[in-house]
C-alpha cells in the first residue's frame, strides 16, 4: 500500500513539474517577445525603468521555471533525494520572488495609467524625428494600431512643430490614415489629414485600442500566473512528501 502511494506521489510530482515546465516556457516566450518585438514595444519598455525591469524579471523567471520543471520531472522519475531537495529549495525561492513581484506590480500599477503615458508623450515626443527612439517607437505604434496619441489627436496640441514645417497642424503624420497599416503603406490623403480634416485621420487613442487588443491576453496572463503559483505550491508539497518517502 505504501509503495502504491509513493508511486502515485511520484507520478503526480512528475505531472505538476510538467505543468511548471510548460508555464516556464510560456513566460520565457512572452519575455523574449516583449524584449525583441519588432513593432517597437521594446523601446517603450526601455523608456520605463519599471517595465524594463519587469520584462527581464519575467524572462529570468521563465528560464528558471523551465529548467526547474525539467529537473523536477527527472528527480521524480529517478527518485533522487538530492535532486528533489535542490528542486524544493529553488522552487520555494521562485515562489517567494513571484509573490514579491506581484506585490510590487500592484503597488506601482499607477505607472501604467493613461495619465502617465500622456505625460510622457507630451514631454518626449518629437513628431516625425525618426532618429529619436521614443518618437520613432510611438510613430510605429500609431501606424501599426491605426491610432493617435494616448487619448486622441488632442494629445499633440502641446507638442512643438518642427522648424520650417510646411503644415500648420497639430496632428503628426503617423496619425494619418493609410491603405495598409505599416510604414510602407500609402496614405489615404496625407495633405487633407495634415490640414486637419478629421475623416482622413485616426481619431481613436492608442491606450484604448491597445487595451482592447490585449485585454483577453492580460486576463489570460493573470490566470496563468495564479495557476503557476498554485502548481508550484503543490509541487513543493509533493516534492517534500516524495523526499520523505524515498528510503
From TrEMBL:
Keywords: Glycoprotein, Membrane, Transmembrane, Transmembrane helix. GO terms for cellular component: plasma membrane. Gene3D superfamilies: Tetraspanin. It is a multi-pass membrane protein. The keyword Protease does not apply. It holds the Pfam family Tetraspanin. InterPro entries: Tetraspanin/Peripherin (IPR018499), Tetraspanin_animals (IPR000301), Tetraspanin_CS (IPR018503), Tetraspanin_EC2_sf (IPR008952). It is found in: Membrane. SUPFAM superfamilies: Tetraspanin (SSF48652). The chain crosses the membrane at residues 12-36, 56-77, 84-108, 217-243. Belongs to the tetraspanin (TM4SF) family. This is Tetraspanin. It comes from Columbina picui. The gene is Tspan18_0.
Amino acid at each position: 500500500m505504501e509503495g502504491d502511494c509513493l508511486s502515485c506521489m511520484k507520478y503526480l510530482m512528475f505531472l505538476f513539474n510538467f505543468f511548471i515546465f510548460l508555464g516556464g516556457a510560456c513566460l520565457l516566450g512572452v519575455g523574449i517577445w516583449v524584449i525583441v518585438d519588432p513593432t517597437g514595444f521594446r523601446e517603450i519598455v526601455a523608456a520605463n525603468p519599471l517595465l524594463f525591469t519587469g520584462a527581464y524579471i519575467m524572462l529570468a523567471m521563465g528560464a528558471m521555471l523551465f529548467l526547474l520543471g525539467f529537473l523536477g520531472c527527472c528527480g521524480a522519475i529517478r527518485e533522487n533525494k538530492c535532486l528533489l531537495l535542490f528542486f524544493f529549495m529553488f522552487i520555494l525561492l521562485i515562489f517567494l520572488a513571484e509573490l514579491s513581484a506581484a506585490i510590487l506590480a500592484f503597488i506601482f500599477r499607477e505607472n501604467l495609467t493613461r495619465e502617465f503615458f500622456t505625460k510622457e508623450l507630451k514631454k518626449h515626443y518629437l513628431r516625425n524625428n525618426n532618429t529619436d527612439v521614443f518618437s520613432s517607437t510611438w510613430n510605429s505604434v500609431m501606424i501599426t494600431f491605426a491610432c493617435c496619441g494616448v487619448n486622441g489627436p488632442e494629445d499633440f496640441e502641446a507638442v512643438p512643430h518642427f522648424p520650417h514645417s510646411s503644415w500648420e497642424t497639430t496632428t503628426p503624420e503617423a496619425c494619418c490614415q493609410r491603405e495598409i497599416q505599416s510604414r510602407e503603406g500609402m496614405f489615404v490623403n496625407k495633405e487633407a489629414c495634415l490640414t486637419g480634416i478629421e475623416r482622413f485621420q485616426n481619431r481613436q487613442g492608442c491606450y484604448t485600442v491597445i487595451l482592447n487588443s490585449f485585454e483577453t491576453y492580460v486576463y489570460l496572463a493573470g490566470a496563468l500566473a495564479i495557476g503557476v503559483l498554485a502548481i508550484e505550491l503543490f509541487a513543493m508539497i509533493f516534492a517534500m512528501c516524495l523526499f520523505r518517502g524515498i528510503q
